[in-house]
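Q: Given only this backbone (332 positions), what sequence would you predict?
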């Protein structure tokens, strides 16, 4: 049924339009409306008829009473077709309506500090989305639809329950900030090393023991003690140790390459092919040694025979003994 505009509803629209601002330093020039207090627990229907809105903030003020929170997002939100920014932080949301996927012009969506565990079907239709905030929710699995939003630049999934990152995350080639602080990750996929546009990566306070071999490819990261762009602390890291990580990507790359080289050397020394070759060479050496000794023995025998021939007349008395005994060179 079409909405019937009553004098009250028309006055509500006019009142809300008077509250629109365009000089917020964060969204300068955009038409912004922030709802406060009781309006959050009972959003006026007139709001969804202000189609020119570009920024809508429905997050409660932290310094004011937090008892007024959204428990659901009205389906009428789909009417705000010009929205570029929607802020829904710090509410009591446990799901999003599928209608939110009709906000095809949305660029920034803030959903942190709620109870979300998934995203609605069709979320990947938000192809203009550049910044997504999902910190402090209930995600146990990585939302796979995000891998289809290839223009995404900022993704915050801190303080969730993630155990695995999909290899497909590397499809987010424009991502420059990936925040995964405080999760349950035990490893990172090798494909994360292909995300060379990353400037900020927070993976502290997880269960990661080893970094991917090509991790040094992420040259834009700063792994210094300042930890301004990246964090690894709070992981049981073994390869490389945290001390190496704090020296930066070049040190990480050098360590991992060195470890790989050492492993290759050990395999070369202990492997069957090389070990077999060593044994063959040793046996060849021993064979040559035996041959040499055999030749030397033959030479000595020949010399002895010649000696006996030259001394035959003077050693006649030893003829019989020579048939029974073998004399040394000293005896000849």
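A: Predicted residues:
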């Amino acid at each position: 049924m079409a909405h019937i505009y009553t004098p009250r509803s028309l006055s509500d629209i006019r009142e809300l339009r008077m509250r629109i601002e365009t000089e917020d330093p964060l969204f300068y020039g955009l038409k912004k409306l922030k709802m406060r207090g009781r309006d959050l627990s009972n959003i006026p229907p007139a709001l969804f008829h202000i189609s020119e809105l570009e920024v809508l903030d429905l997050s409660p003020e932290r310094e004011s009473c937090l008892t007024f929170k959204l428990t659901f997002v009205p389906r009428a939100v789909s009417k705000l077709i010009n929205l570029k920014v929607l802020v829904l932080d710090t509410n009591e949301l446990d799901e999003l309506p599928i209608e939110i996927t009709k906000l095809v012009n949305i660029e920034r969506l803030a959903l942190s500090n709620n109870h979300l565990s998934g995203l609605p079907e069709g979320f990947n239709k938000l192809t203009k989305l550049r910044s997504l905030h999902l910190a402090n929710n209930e995600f146990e699995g990585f939302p796979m639809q995000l891998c289809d939003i290839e223009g995404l630049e900022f993704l915050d999934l801190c303080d969730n329950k993630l155990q695995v990152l999909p290899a497909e995350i590397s499809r987010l080639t424009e991502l420059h900030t990936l925040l995964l602080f405080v999760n349950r990750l035990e490893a990172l996929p090798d494909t994360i090393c292909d995300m060379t546009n990353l400037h900020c990566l927070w993976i502290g306070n997880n269960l990661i023991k080893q970094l991917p071999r090509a991790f040094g490819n992420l040259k834009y990261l700063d792994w210094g003690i300042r930890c301004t762009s990246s964090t690894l602390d709070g992981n049981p890291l073994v390869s490389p140790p945290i001390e190496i990580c704090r020296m930066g990507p070049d040190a990480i790359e050098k360590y991992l390459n060195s470890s790989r080289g050492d492993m290759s050397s050990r395999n070369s020394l202990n492997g069957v092919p090389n070990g077999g070759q060593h044994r063959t060479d040793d046996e060849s050496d021993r064979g040559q040694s035996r041959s040499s000794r055999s030749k030397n023995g033959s030479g000595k025998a020949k010399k002895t025979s010649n000696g006996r021939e030259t001394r035959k007349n003077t050693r006649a008395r030893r003829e019989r003994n020579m048939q029974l005994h073998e004399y040394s060179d000293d005896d000849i």
